[in-house]
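Researcher: For the annotation table, I need structure tokens for CBS domain-containing protein. Please keep the output clean. Sequence:
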Amino acid sequence: MSTKHEKILQYIESLPVGDKISVRQIAKDMQVSEGTAYRAIKEAENRSLVSSIERVGTIRIEKKKKENIERLTFAEIVNIVDGQVLGGMSGLHKTLTKFVIGAMQLEDMMRYTEAGNLLIVGNRFKAHEYALKAGAAVLITGGFDTTEENKRLADELELPIISSSYDSFTVATMINRAIYDQLIKKDILLIEDIYVPIEETAMLKNNQLIEDFHKLNTLTSHGAFPVVTASNNKLIGMITVKDVIGKDPKEQIDKVMTKHPISTSMKTSVASAGHRMIWEGIDLLPIVDDEGVLQGVISRQDVLKALQHAQRQPQHGETIDDIVKKEIKLLGEDDLMVEFTVTPQMTNQFGAISYGAFTTLLSEAGSLALKRRKRGDAVAENLTIYFIKPIQMESVLTVVPHILDMSRKFVKMDFDVFNEQVLVGKAMMMFQLLER
């Protein structure tokens, strides 16, 4: 049985793409409070089902698949460039294929402008008209307006005309940055990419007996199961083999299960979920929605397989971590030392290496040292920086890790950082080893 929240989301998803929706309208149509409607619309926005635009409202947009996540809708463009919609509002849900900067003669401009494009141009009214007739939307820079005829044409063709106070170079940079951010998101594995859905999940109801656990255990050979309410599949516990040892088979499950179990959501990254599972010592993690209803499960094996697979995939968008890792060079086969060059992207406002880049450098150097010792993958747990001198861009650093203490699960490591044989930084880091 679906909750009110789920029903509203299903209703929003059933609306035609391009429809304008409001909290009041959803509350009236679904006979719920405005607060409930507002929360559902916000969740729909997180799921990329709708886009909210200042002075326009909330518009139902087509949900983007992960493989096309970098393609932006015109509604998203309005928000990215702090724009104002002058016409063609009913086409805001459409997706653009590419953008063209109109810094050329009109005839040349039109040669590059096709249906589905976004023409970025100043107050050149003829260019606005020709672009619309070619099937492209228009982004007017410098805060300029367009003619009433062009606005009517935009409404008729359902192609947005957007005005932004920024110049052409700035809006192109902002749009590029947004696409780049989407590419980074595309690279990040989320729980929703690898989880086992509820239809395929072995689970037990709270009113079942321990003998039902034994039957399911024999059937699936799994040692742990989520426990849900009989009425609406709301997660209320987890039950494992340890919980039922020596218990009466006729005893009800909810008497022996672990209540308030650790769970996570679809939008959690696989890396974060895996780290939590290892830290908490659990092999099965339930996935729930905002209302606590079970959506599926993920196992530790699923996480490790997914992370190993992700490491072999080409990256589309680079994060600061990727940039730092590219600059690390191993020194020799036996030594644990690494060499590192500080690039401008890694600096703070003073032109010195940022704490974020410095932390990533030490974490990566430590991980490489552990791999050389054949200790597998590790996650940095905590860091203590004893001191760090201002390290200028283009400095070449040598990082020397020293393993102070190593157990089956943890490693304590000390780092000396040199620039031209001068000690410029010293830190200590604790790593947790990932079990295979």
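Researcher: And a one-line annotation?
Model: DSSP finds 15 helices and 21 strands in the chain.
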